[in-house]
Amino acid sequence: MELYAPILVLAVLAAGFAVFSVSVAPFTGPKRWNRAKLDAYECGIEPTPQPVGGGRFPLKYMITAMLFIVFDIEIIFLYPWAVAFDQLGVFGLIEMVLFIVTVLVAYAYVWRRRGLDWD
Amino acid sequence: MTFLVSPVANPGPTSPGPTLADFGHDPLWISIIKAVFLFVFLMVGVLMGVWTERKLISRMQHRYGPNRAGKFGLLQTVADGLKMGLKEDLMPRKVDKLLYFLAPVIIAVPAFLAFSVIPFGPVVSMFGVKTPLQLTDLPVAVLLILAMASIGVYGIVLAGWASRSPYAILGGLRSSAQVVSYEIAMGLSFVAVFLYAGTLSTSEIVAKQADGGSFALGSLNIPLPSWYAVLLIPSFLIYVLTMLGETNRVPFDLPEGEGELVGGFHTEYSSSLKFAMFMLAEYVNVFVVSGVATTLFLGGWRAPWPISLWDGANVGWWPMLWFFAKLVLLFCFFVWVRASLPRVRYDQLMHFGWKVLIPLNLAWILMVASFRALRVDNSPLVIVLMAIVVVGALGVYFRFDTVLQRRREQRAAQEAEEFDQLRDQPTAGGFPVPALDLPHYHGATTGLNRKEVPSA
Amino acid sequence: MGETVTFWVLAVASVAAALGLVFSRKAVYSALMLGVVMLSLAVLYAVQDAPFLAAVQIIVYTGAVMMLFLFVLMLVGVDSSDSLVETLRGQRFWAFLAGLGFAVLLALGFGNVVFAAPTGLAAVNQAGNVPSLAEAIFTRYVFAFEVTSALLITAALGAMVLAHRERAEAKATQKDLSRARFVAFGETGANPASLPGPGTYARHNAIDMPALLPDGSISQLSVNRHLARHTEELLEERSGELDASETPVAEITEGENSK
């Protein structure tokens, strides 16, 4: 608990500063209303009435997010394993080799099916 | 191999520094002083960092850089900051008001918090209170840094989403996909450090780099390097690459690829203080990754070799100077990279992150772990296991190598064949060819049996 | 003391966020409320002396899983509304069954906590939080740990099956495209070089205004044809307020393609 108190202090400072800057911004500057200024910036042309791609995005990003989860979890397992490696010894190494190899099967499959290729 | 097994303890003139047990005893006012110091340090750091970057990069490009506001243009960033405050704060019509407002806050706060576990120095006496020069430390300090990085990404995604502008949304998506991809490689590059340090606490990792032991050669004791940057070079190099990707800096500054995406996720944040928050967060993030590099790989606040011979180098307030020097040098490295390298393409970026850094990292981790296992347990089982791992890794590598080699040769053969065909019959395939009987071609092909080298 | 205060603050915050999650009308807001709940949980874990769990909660749930949610929300579009047609047959039954199973699991878990004698934090964390956790995962629960990898495979495969569309043929590289351009030039005389830039700055401050050629005529190639069409519509809309000196894009001559 005591370990976290200083983080809280810093968080209050940082958040206070950020919120203050952001909320003070509308009051410090001039206000000159102009329709064009309030449009989304699209290199000077009239903003497209529809969002990009009809508001939909390539599913590609979902694969990236999913693989990110997979590897994130792998990393989360790797950390305690690395920290306690000396106690776990060879048994730990074998376990982790098995684990990594199994995850790499999925990785190889995704790679093979060009899931890692970007167009 | 045996010298690895028994590192001769070489108790230096100073203790290795604070450990986790030294934290959590500060009275509140000391914590407040430290937190305020850290905050001011980062704010001034950003002001000076922007100036340093602009000045350095302009010298690299034979320009003067900012030199009007204040001596050497030192006040340029202050002037810019004030100007941002005095600019009109636009709230574009279509934006999602709440999130548009929150995104700069969400991106800035975690950047600051990540710095709270970076050690600046050993235990010092501050107004009569003995306290380590580090805001706080946790048993999972490095994880806190990663956690803050993963919250910071929200600022990017939400800024892009809330702006309701195609450039901003695309920039936000790209940027977040890039950051999460490089976060994996970054997380993996720490594993080898933890294998050696056996802890996730930053102060203890620094302590572990105090002394690398020594290699006894007869009566001579050769001290071994203690920095993990030296012991674990591949991890360090991978980390250096990922820290460029993680902070969206050149050559990985795709989110701001102004040629295609204008300003990326912050396109709709005009030049007001909201934009200043993004700028601030970017620079604080650069400091955070540099601080992590210093702490995990470059010996933290400990003095580098020639200075460390001096007994007082690693005690008192001096270490803050060494830490600061390392931080500045790393920051200059960022600037140097920015001045030297062009931006990579997005598909190249993702390929590099997913197909190169991750497998390399995993292979390296297994190798380090095998060596470590040898230290713990010298039984033949380990050696056999290691052999299997190495043979397996080599097998995979050679398999890839032969496949790639074959593919390269195939392509080269195909190109050569095509070239021959085109030489005999230049218009084959419908390519436009200038008339070969033009006056300046006369004699160009006679007497010479030169074969042109095809490109690529 | 501090723990109690933290608990009550976070309890209020997380319950409010959970209610916001359910009642918020925008999907992204719901997702963010979920994020707040997860963060509150993480802080609670930290306060309860489970630092590793707290960090993992933030990194995996707030960082990775929520990011997936946000991506998916963006994929389905900013303003799309929910379709209330049930496409899966009998899903209510199975959902009920799964819910029941989960409730039983929870009850068992809680029962275990309530009725078994507690070991105590000090005894469990003897070697420090992270190493003790590692001991537990990699010795006692090694089977569960290895099975996790199978789960991860399933996740990756699921994403591939759902979201990946394999190309029928290889994507044309820059080299292929360049070749194709030159072949087209040889056959039809189409310009292989890059197109001229628009008249931004020279005539107007927007990229949908064409550039002028040296002879004063308008370069039709300098405007993306989608933008040109867009401009045409605009010009029609505003034909009343149109400046007479401005040449509408619709009148651009075809003279240029003959080069």
Automatic annotation (TrEMBL), chain A:
Which GO-annotated molecular functions does the record name? NADH dehydrogenase (quinone) (non-electrogenic) activity; NADH dehydrogenase (ubiquinone) activity; quinone binding
The reply to whether Transcription regulation figures as a keyword in the UniProt entry is no
> What GO cellular component is one of the record's annotations?
NADH dehydrogenase complex
Return the EC number: 7.1.1.-
How does this chain sit within the bilayer?
Multi-pass membrane protein
- List locations, semicolon-separated: Cell membrane; Membrane
Q: Which Pfam families match?
A: Oxidored_q4 (PF00507)
Chief location: membrane
Give the record's keywords alphabetically: Cell membrane, Membrane, NAD, Quinone, Translocase, Transmembrane, Transmembrane helix, Transport
Residues annotated as transmembrane: 6-27, 61-82, 88-110
Give the reactions, separated by semicolons, that this protein catalyses: a quinone + NADH + 5 H(+)(in) = a quinol + NAD(+) + 4 H(+)(out)
- What does this protein do, in the record's words? NDH-1 shuttles electrons from NADH, via FMN and iron-sulfur (Fe-S) centers, to quinones in the respiratory chain. The immediate electron acceptor for the enzyme in this species is believed to be a menaquinone. Couples the redox reaction to proton translocation (for every two electrons transferred, four hydrogen ions are translocated across the cytoplasmic membrane), and thus conserves the redox energy in a proton gradient.
Q: How does it assemble?
A: NDH-1 is composed of 14 different subunits. Subunits NuoA, H, J, K, L, M, N constitute the membrane sector of the complex.
The family classification in the record reads:
Belongs to the complex I subunit 3 family.
Q: This chain belongs to which protein, by name?
A: NADH-quinone oxidoreductase subunit A
> Origin organism of this chain?
Acrocarpospora corrugata
Gene that this polypeptide is encoded by: nuoA
TrEMBL record, chain B:
Q: What is its EC number?
A: 7.1.1.-
Q: What class of enzyme is it?
A: translocase
**Main subcellular location:** membrane
Topology in membrane? Multi-pass membrane protein
As for subcellular location, the record says: Cell membrane; Membrane
Residue ranges annotated as transmembrane are 28-51, 98-120, 140-163, 184-206, 226-244, 280-301, 321-341, 353-374, 380-400
Q: Which InterPro entries match?
A: NADH_UbQ_OxRdtase_su1/FPO, NADH_UbQ_OxRdtase_su1_CS
Task: Please give the PROSITE patterns that the UniProt record associates with this protein.
Answer: COMPLEX1_ND1_1 (PS00667), COMPLEX1_ND1_2 (PS00668)
The entry's cellular-component GO terms read: plasma membrane
Catalytic activity, reaction form = a quinone + NADH + 5 H(+)(in) = a quinol + NAD(+) + 4 H(+)(out)
Biological process annotations from GO: aerobic respiration
Gene Ontology molecular function terms on file: NADH dehydrogenase activity; oxidoreductase activity, acting on NAD(P)H, quinone or similar compound as acceptor; quinone binding
UniProt-annotated stretches for the region Disordered: 415-456
Record family assignment:
Belongs to the complex I subunit 1 family.
Function text:
NDH-1 shuttles electrons from NADH, via FMN and iron-sulfur (Fe-S) centers, to quinones in the respiratory chain. The immediate electron acceptor for the enzyme in this species is believed to be ubiquinone. Couples the redox reaction to proton translocation (for every two electrons transferred, four hydrogen ions are translocated across the cytoplasmic membrane), and thus conserves the redox energy in a proton gradient. This subunit may bind ubiquinone.
Q: What is the official name of this protein in its record? A: NADH-quinone oxidoreductase subunit H
Q: Which organism is it from?
A: Acrocarpospora corrugata
From TrEMBL, chain C:
Of the GO CC terms on this record, one is:
plasma membrane
Reaction(s) the record says it catalyses: a quinone + NADH + 5 H(+)(in) = a quinol + NAD(+) + 4 H(+)(out)
Task: Fetch the Gene3D superfamilies from UniProt.
Answer: NADH-ubiquinone/plastoquinone oxidoreductase chain 6, subunit NuoJ (1.20.120.1200)
Does the record's keyword annotation contain GTP-binding?
A: no
Subcellular location as annotated = Cell membrane
- Where does it primarily localize? membrane
Alphabetical list of Pfam families matching this protein: Oxidored_q3
The top EC class is translocase
Enzyme Commission number: 7.1.1.-
Q: Region (Disordered) spans which residues?
A: 235-259
Q: Which GO MF terms are attached to this record? A: NADH dehydrogenase (ubiquinone) activity; quinone binding
Instruction: Answer whether the UniProt record assigns the keyword Chloroplast to this protein.
Output: no
Enumerate the UniProt keywords alphabetically.
Answer: Cell membrane, Membrane, NAD, Quinone, Transmembrane, Transmembrane helix, Ubiquinone
**Protein's membrane topology:** Multi-pass membrane protein
User: At the top level of its lineage, which domain of life is listed?
Assistant: Bacteria
Residue ranges spanning the membrane: these are 6-23, 28-46, 52-73, 93-117, 137-163
The record's family statement is: Belongs to the complex I subunit 6 family.
Q: What does this protein do?
A: NDH-1 shuttles electrons from NADH, via FMN and iron-sulfur (Fe-S) centers, to quinones in the respiratory chain. Couples the redox reaction to proton translocation (for every two electrons transferred, four hydrogen ions are translocated across the cytoplasmic membrane), and thus conserves the redox energy in a proton gradient.
- Stated name of the protein: NADH-quinone oxidoreductase subunit J
Which species does the entry assign this protein to?
Acrocarpospora corrugata
